[in-house]
Amino acid sequence: MIQVGLLTIEQKDQLIGQLYAPDSYFNPIQDIEDNWVISQEEMNECINERCLWVKELPLIPYLPKPDPILESL
Amino acid sequence: MKTSINTNTVLGNTGKTSIVLPTFSYDCPDPDAVAFLSAAGVTDTLSVDAVCTLVTDLKTAGLWTKMTAVYPFVGSTPASHKFNLINPADSDAAKRLVFNGGIIHSSTGALPNGVNGYANTFVNSDIANFPIPDYISFSYYSRTPGSHVTGGNVIGSFGNPATQATSARLLIRFVGNPNSSISVINYPDGIQPNASTTTDTDGSGYYIGTRTSSASKLFIRGILRGSASGGTTTFSPPPVDMYLFAYNNRGISALNFTNKECAFAHIGKGLSDAECVTLSTIVNNFQTALGRNV
């Protein structure tokens, strides 16, 4: 099971538009339960000093939202 | 024989002093290849030779002018992977990639995580940019075999969730249909958009989706694997930027992420069968030269 970092809404807002490494932006998304999460790659690779707190985020199992378009193909 | 091109830059030519910056001298006769390599900061002989040959082959085959964006993924960082071979300027207008979410970059390509990793190509698939009779094509060199547990869209854009209309997408062994791959390209010309395989048991190799005046087609490893024609479709490709490693959902979000490592991708005008076969050969030779073909 893939694990992802759990964000509060405030933390999500802080990460939008921020780089976690050169040429690589954070991309918070919502899981199936509408939790805001980021990937472990973003947590592990983050060298942006303003965002190093992401390395301490709690991990939860990732359950994606179903894609209604894909399932009807 | 190759010709050495010195790319030194002369600055500060005020009539008093000229400052010459020491830069790399590429052993490659093609200025477009040199411009890309210089922008990407790629200097190793293997990559220089491979890119130089790639550009020469595309031009010789008449494919260069049909490409809007080509992403060769040479080098090993996002700073080198982001550049468009056709126009290697560091700008949205030049269709350079902007990476978002989890993506691992290495000398074998860009490996998205299948969770939230995608890249904006800034290539808008609007019919005004890809009009009839040229249509549109796109491709993805996957180095990762197998089916998707989640997602499966490797490149694309989407416009209308209610009708499935306005799509330009390529999906490889996607969730919900893990033994099938599909190219979906809408045009208002009465051609069915869904060119799909019924049995794709691989998931790696070079995939091309293309439209022509007579059919929507899907090529895998240089072989025509899916074709659709006829029908009543009246929709157009969506007027939003195409994403890599996911699809652009109406300009609102990226959806349906892939975890397949990408070693080459393109977006351009629609290609004939012969052109798809030729492009497959050129890209396979490129990957072989870099020692990362699958």
Features:
heterodimer, A: 73 residues, alpha+beta, 4-stranded antiparallel beta sheet, two-stranded antiparallel ribbon, 3 helices, 23% helix, 26% strand, globular, B: 294 residues, 9-stranded mixed beta sheet, 6-stranded antiparallel beta sheet, 4 helices, 21 strands, disordered N terminus
Describe the structure.
The complex is a heterodimer of chains A (73) and B (294). Chain A is of the alpha+beta class and 73 residues long. In chain A, the strands form two sheets. A four-stranded antiparallel beta sheet of chain A has the order 4-5-1-6. In chain A, 23% of the residues lie in helices and 26% in strands. Chain A has three helices and six strands. In chain A, strand 4 and strand 5 form a beta hairpin. Chain A has helices at residues 9-15, 40-45, 68-71, and strands at 3-7, 19-21, 24-25, 29-30, 36-39, 59-61. Chain B has 294 residues and is of the alpha+beta class. Helices cover 16% and strands 32% of the residues of chain B. Chain B has helices at 31-40, 45-60, 78-81, 273-289, and strands at residues 4-6, 9-11, 19-21, 25-27, 67-71, 98-100, 103-106, 109-112, 118-124, 137-142, 153-158, 167-171, 182-185, 194-196, 205-211, 216-220, 223-228, 241-244, 247-249, 253-255, 262-268. In chain B, the strands form five sheets. In chain B, strands 6, 9, 11, 12, 13, 14, 18, 19 and 20 form a nine-stranded mixed beta sheet that branches. In chain B, helix 1 (31-40) crosses helix 2 and helix 2 runs antiparallel to helix 4 (273-289). Chain B is globular, with a radius of gyration of 19 Å. Residues 1-15 of chain B have low confidence and may be disordered. Chain A binds chain B through residues 2, 4, 21-29, 37-42, 62, 64, 67-73, and chain B through 77-79, 82, 98-104, 113-118, 150-153, 158, 161, 164, 171, 174-177, 182, 184, 194, 249, 253-256.
In terms of DSSP E residues, the strand content of chain A is: 25-35%
Q: What are the secondary-structure elements of chain B, in order, as H or E? A: EEEEHHEHEEEEEEEEEEEEEEEEH
* pLDDT averaged residue by residue of chain B: 91
Strand pairing plus helix content of chain B: what structural class? Answer: alpha+beta
Strand order of the largest sheet of chain A: 4-5-1-6
Low-confidence stretches of chain B: 1-15
Report low-confidence residues of chain A grouped into runs of 5 or more. none
CA-based gyration radius of chain A: 13 Å
Task: Estimate the global geometry of chain B from the Cα principal axes.
Answer: globular
Count the helices of chain B. How many?
4
Number of DSSP strand runs of chain A? 6
Q: Level of helix content of chain B?
A: 10-25%
Largest sheet of chain A: 4 strands, antiparallel
